[in-house]
């Protein structure tokens, strides 16, 4: 068997333990781990969200995770474009994608080029979406125990 090149992609905005778990599990299943960081433009275009942390800073954070060997910034929505550039053999994703239209499409596309899609348990208790909601609540003047919470942004 040749070198197993793994690819785990995410926005990695508001980096949290779920991101860390994905990268840690991915590294356990490959020889070289490349973390794909979705660019600001792609986040706006595909997810319709404004990133909190700019692409370059997110890439820098992820690059310094001990089990990440390299970082690739995604600038197109096509994972096949990423595969053509990186040539990974394994694609890692949270199991919240398993059985979805997007997940099944990825599995078919990657099967055609010999890439194995591997799902890991999704960290349900934390997500960037829940962190965004908390930040929005703070910014809107939320209170904790009746006392105002001050936004620092």
How would you characterize the overall build of this protein?
This protein has a five-stranded parallel sheet with strand order 3-2-1-4-5, sandwiched between helices. The protein has a two-stranded antiparallel ribbon with strand order 6-7. The protein has a single domain (5-123), classed as HUPs (Rossmann fold, 3-Layer(aba) Sandwich), CATH 3.40.50. The protein is globular, with a radius of gyration of 17 Å. The protein has 153 residues and is an alpha/beta fold. The model has no long low-confidence stretch (mean pLDDT 87). It starts with a strand and ends in a 5-residue tail after the last strand. It is 39% helix and 21% strand. The protein has helices at 17-27, 40-47, 55-63, 79-86, 101-111, 128-139; strands at 5-10, 32-38, 70-74, 90-94, 116-120, 143-144, 147-148.
Defining traits:
Rossmann fold; 7 strands; globular; 21% strand; alpha/beta; 153 residues; two-stranded antiparallel ribbon
Q: In brief, what are we looking at here?
A:
With 153 residues, the protein is of the alpha/beta class. The chain contains 6 helices and 7 strands.
Strand content: 15-25%
Query: First CA to last CA: what distance?
Result: 50 Å
Level-2 CATH architecture: 3-Layer(aba) Sandwich
The CATH superfamily is known as HUPs
In CATH, what is the class? Answer: Alpha Beta
Classify the helix fraction into a percent range: 25-40%
Class based on secondary structure composition and strand pairing? alpha/beta
Number of domains: 1
For the CA atoms, what is the radius of gyration?
17 Å
Element-by-element helix/strand order: EHEHHEHEHEHEE
Overall form: globular
Average pLDDT taken over every residue: 87
Q: Fill in the CATH topology.
A: Rossmann fold
Low-confidence stretches: none
């Amino acid at each position: 068997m040749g070198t197993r090149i793994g690819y785990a992609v995410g926005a990695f905005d508001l980096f949290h333990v779920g991101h860390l778990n994905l990268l840690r599990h991915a590294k356990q299943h490959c020889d070289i781990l490349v973390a794909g960081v979705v660019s600001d433009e792609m986040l706006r275009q595909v997810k319709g969200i404004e990133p909190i942390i700019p692409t370059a800073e997110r890439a820098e954070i992820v690059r310094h995770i001990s089990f990440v060997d390299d970082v690739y910034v995604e600038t197109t929505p096509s994972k096949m474009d990423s595969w053509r550039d990186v040539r990974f053999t394994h694609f890692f994703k949270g199991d919240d994608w398993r059985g979805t239209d997007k997940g099944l499409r990825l599995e078919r596309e990657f099967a055609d080029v010999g890439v194995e899609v591997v799902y890991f348990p999704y960290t349900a208790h934390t997500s960037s979406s829940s962190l965004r909601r908390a930040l929005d609540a703070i910014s809107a003047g939320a209170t904790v125990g009746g006392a105002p919470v001050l936004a620092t942004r």
